[in-house]
Amino acid sequence: MKIAHLCLSNFYIDEHLYQENALVREHVASGHDVIVIASTENFDGNKALVYGEPKDYIGSDGARVIRLAYRHFPNLLARKLRAHRGVKKVLDEFRPNVILFHGACGWELRTAAAFARSHPHVRLLVDSHEDWNNSARGFISRNVLHRYYYAPILRSAIDV
Fold first, then answer.
1. Range list of β-strands (E), 15-160
2. C-alpha closest to that of 41 among 78, 72, 67, 6
3. pLDDT (tens digit, 9 = 90+) per residue, 34-66?
4. 47: left (phi > 0), else alpha (psi -120 to 50), else beta?
5. CA triplet 106, 147, 103: central angle to 5 degrees?
6. Taking the model in full, what pTM does it have?
């Protein structure tokens, strides 16, 4: 089976024990063809948030990792909107049977849902790490970003 993990709304960090890493490792160990499409967000040696360069490599979990650049918006805006360049192209080339979208917030959920709609055999699964402890704490985040941006994107993807 071909499985695409989309880690564009949250981190994918090599050599860690996060849920995303465990699932990727298990899918690779089970013999599946696995790809991770990730943002350039990462942690440095001091556990500070850093943004690396886009790249394509074999990650520590054994899967191909493609780190994509943000779309052509001002950088801070693109990071909040979670809009990346090239997601559709990677999905079209890889042709997954299953897409696991990690984190329910971000523009590229629309891209994944559109791909699943146009390929009825594809299963789109979305997990969410967002809750009151780590998301939408401020007025602008809660009332603008989450309510009027992320929520409509999620609702539009649900009918897949």
1. 33-38, 41-43, 49-51, 55-58, 64-67, 98-102, 123-127
2. 67
3. 999 999 988 887 888 888 899 999 999 999 999
4. left
5. 30
6. 0.88
